[in-house]
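Sequence, please.
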């Protein structure tokens, strides 16, 4: 529940400061929290376990997961975006995420249920993540590529009318189309005004 509340907050924040700083900040917090997290779990208290989980998954993980999809979409050009995101995310999830429980269980068995190796494993994977994201170009305040050339098509010319572009805004920070609820009625009016034009252009 905490994560669900914080994700849109972090997403909005990333529009202001960028995806990269938010992701790096969350990863650094994960590194710093690795040992305290397992220490809290080892205390045998249900209250401390809940607190540890809320801090780790509810707060620290929120900035990372909030910007992940948008940051991935900003890495690739539109002609290879789906392929790049799918291969990068799914292969990473399978190789790293899929084997993580097995590695953690093996480390616990090898080191007499000591959480130290598991915490170190989290730190190492987080450092790898930091190195990877460090070389990613931060595209905040950049206009993303418009390879689809919407305004050159029949429907695109309809959508690119002056009236609609005034209220249907392309958010270049998150590369998503945002329709202001406050302007919904005005957009509908513009759509109705242009409806017949769509079929005679």
């Amino acid at each position: 529940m905490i994560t669900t509340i914080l994700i849109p907050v972090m997403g909005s924040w990333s529009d202001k400061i960028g995806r990269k700083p938010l992701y790096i900040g969350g990863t650094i917090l994960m590194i710093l929290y690795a040992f305290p997290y397992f220490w809290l779990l080892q205390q045998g208290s249900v209250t401390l376990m809940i607190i540890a989980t809320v801090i780790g998954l509810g707060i620290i993980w929120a900035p990372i997961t909030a910007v992940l999809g948008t940051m991935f979409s900003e890495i690739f050009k539109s002609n290879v975006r789906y392929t790049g995101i799918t291969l990068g995310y799914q292969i990473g999830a399978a190789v790293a995420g899929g084997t993580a429980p097995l590695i953690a269980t093996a480390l616990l068995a090898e080191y007499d249920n000591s959480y130290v190796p598991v915490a170190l494993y989290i730190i190492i994977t987080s450092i790898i993540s930091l190195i990877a994201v460090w070389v990613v170009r931060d595209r905040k305040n950049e206009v993303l590529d418009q390879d689809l050339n919407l305004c050159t098509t029949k429907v695109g010319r309809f959508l690119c009318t002056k009236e609609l572009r005034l209220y249907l805004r392309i958010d270049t920070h998150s590369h998503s189309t945002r329709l202001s609820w406050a302007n919904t009625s005005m957009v509908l009016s513009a759509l109705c005004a242009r409806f017949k034009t769509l079929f005679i252009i």
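Residues 46-75 form the longest helix (30 residues).
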